[in-house]
């Protein structure tokens, strides 16, 4: 394959890609949590939460692919194992099956964590003048901020 020449220096590409790896790991961990909670939610609001969690993990499945492909576009290998995701992710896995209200709280915090990770990675992309990565990251932030807001309304 020919050498990459997209107007971003190698060091900046690597820094942005390393940040995107963290965003990918956070997103994938949140995907797994959302899917787990979709399968295991119980209680009075089962149907609403079951469907909402499905919407979340479906959206996240597309997101992880887009983030991984952006990492590859920057000519860096994307992480793809549980071990790598666990090492890179700031979203931590949950033991057992929490009650539905705890699920909502855990997912709210997970989406908020993804936003915080995205904010850090956005700075790297902007410093590199990497508009494509910045646009992707900004889009992810907006989606996670809105999802966290919607989840927070269930806690009142």
UniProtKB/TrEMBL annotation:
It comes from Photobacterium rosenbergii. InterPro entries: DPS_DNA-bd, DPS_DNA-bd_CS, Ferritin-like, Ferritin-like_SF, Ferritin_DPS_dom. PROSITE patterns: DPS_1, DPS_2. This is Dps family protein. Pfam families: Ferritin (PF00210). It comes from the Bacteria. Residues 18-154 form the Ferritin/DPS domain. Belongs to the Dps family.
């Amino acid at each position: 394959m020919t050498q990459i020449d997209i107007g971003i220096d190698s060091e900046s590409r690597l820094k942005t890609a390393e940040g995107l790896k963290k965003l990918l790991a956070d997103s994938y961990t949140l995907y797994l949590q959302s899917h787990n909670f979709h399968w295991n939610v119980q209680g009075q609001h089962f149907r609403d939460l079951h469907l909402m969690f499905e919407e979340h993990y479906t959206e996240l499945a597309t997101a992880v692919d887009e983030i991984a492909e952006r990492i590859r576009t920057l000519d860096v290998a994307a992480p793809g194992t549980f071990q790598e995701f666990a090492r890179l992710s700031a979203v931590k896995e949950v033991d057992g099956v929490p009650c539905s209200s705890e699920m909502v709280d855990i997912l709210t915090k997970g989406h908020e964590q993804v936003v915080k990770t995205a904010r850090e990675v956005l700075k790297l992309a902007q410093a590199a003048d990497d508009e494509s990565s910045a646009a992707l990251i900004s889009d992810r932030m907006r989606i996670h901020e809105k999802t966290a807001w919607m989840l927070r309304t269930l806690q009142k």
